[in-house]
Amino acid sequence: MQSFIRLTLVLFTAASFSMRAEPVRDIGKIEVIAENKTLPIRVSANTPELNALALQAFGTHGRYRVVASGFAFDIKFSAVTPTQVRVDITKAPSGTPVASEVLTGSSARNALLKAADVAVVKTNGLGLRGYFAAKLAFINERTGKKEIYTGDLMFGEVKQITRDNSIALNPRWAPDGSRLIYTSFYKSGFPDIFTIDLGSYQRSTFVSFKGTNSGARFSPNGSQVAMILSGEGTPEIYVSNAQGRAVARKTRSDAVKSSPTFSPDGSRLVFASEPGPQLYTMPVSGGAPTRLTSGISGYCAEPDWSRTNPNKIVFTIRVGRNFQIAVYDFSKRSSEQVSKAPFDGVEPSWLPDGRHVVYSARTSTTSVVSILDTETGKSTPISPKGFGSTLQANVWAP
After folding, report:
1. Across all residues in the chain, what is the average pLDDT?
2. In which band, very low, low, confident or very high, does the pLDDT at 233 lie, cut at 50, 70 and 90?
3. What is the reported pTM?
4. Are β-strands 39-45 and 73-81 bridged in parallel, bridged antiparallel, or unpaired?
């Protein structure tokens, strides 16, 4: 019975993996014609590698349209040292200087992405912050097993983090970027929660109770972790300190629950719960859950609360036989479907500008990580072709 409960919950927390859509066309870009809402820019760099990276980065951003002529801003990047890039921005057609700044990174690539974020801040006109220098943790199956990798947002400088030769699920960043928390079957054959230090690559058992241990996620200040445990018989939400101690139960019902995520101020949780599932919020201290009655779908799961815009939660919905991405807006008390792709969209994670998300774009045969602009519906794959199925990406912004 214990094995059945463990397996059932893990399949639910990754429910979107098992509900495959019918075969559809290859995953690709979804372009949205919205010229009145986009800003035409010219982008260039003084080396082929940096030029390609700059074009790739801005090509994912729904606010911008990269053009060769008729641009509002000219954005030029120049390698200064192996770890420094200068960005020069001029306003067209006058050529008036807007900004010039040298950014230092861990590599020329990282410096370019930081410089591109500066360009976004200086030009977007909507108060958006940049997201290009964000980091990703994700699951990839290139070894034949689900292992954890990290990389930059454009899938450069990718490193394999785990070699469990088993199943790893749902990697989530600590707020300071120093470690990951995730679920793995490697030690006991059942799902337990582990952390891994990204400096030493030392793995530590976070919790390993009887039953299922899954869905762990840090609070915004890193002092607490929310997770799903079934040791007392029913899969419930628990909250511990950052070391996996002082574990306290927060829910009490027979319903299966998943994906607990903290609000930006750390005071509340949003999670998915059967029947449906549907989304609920509750105080971290405990109390009766409140359903987010959006009425958008009978299936609402995998919520992620924006730390940039506390009014917005992104989540997965079912539409017909497929899955899509939706956003709940507390200020409107309503939800909106923001992806309309001919393939599944699942596992959304906010980027630091509060407008774009990364998500898994999935067909019946593969999964790639893509960036979705929730304002326009523009979708751009970012995981490379030939890299193998890539999924469950989670974002960390320095």
Report:
1. 91
2. confident
3. 0.91
4. parallel
User: CA–CA separation, 115 vs 84, rounded Å?
Assistant: 9
CA distance 277 to 302: 10
**Which positions ≥6 away from 104 have C-beta within 8 Å?**
83, 84, 111, 114
CATH code of the domain in which 96 resides: 3.40.50.10070
Domain boundary among 123, 144, 170: 123
H-assigned helices in 78-143: 108-123
Residues 96 and 137 grouped into a single domain: no
What pLDDT, on the 0 to 100 scale, is given for residue 115? 98
Range of the domain at 79: 36-123
E-assigned strand segments in 219-343: 224-229, 236-241, 248-249, 257-262, 268-273, 278-283, 290-291, 300-305, 312-319, 322-329, 334-337
Among 123, 142, 165, the domain-final residue is 123
Pair (87, 155) in one structural domain? no
Residues 166, 46 within the same domain: no
- Judge contact between 84 and 102, C-beta under 8 A: yes
Q: Count the neighbouring beta carbons within 10 Å of the beta carbon of residue 271.
A: 24
Claim to verify: residue 101 and residue 159 sit in the same structural domain: no
Query: What is the C-alpha to C-alpha distance for residues 184 and 6, in angstroms, rounded to an integer?
Result: 12
Using an 8 Å Cβ cutoff, are 367 and 353 in contact?
Answer: no
Helix (H) / strand (E) element for 379: namely: strand 379-381
98 with 140, same domain: the answer is no
For the chain, give the number of residues.
398
The answer, yes or no, to whether residue 324 has pLDDT greater than 50, is yes
Structure tokens at 312: 């917005």
* pLDDT greater at residue 25 or residue 207: 207
Residues 6+ apart with CB under 8 A from 119: 73, 75, 87, 89, 99, 130
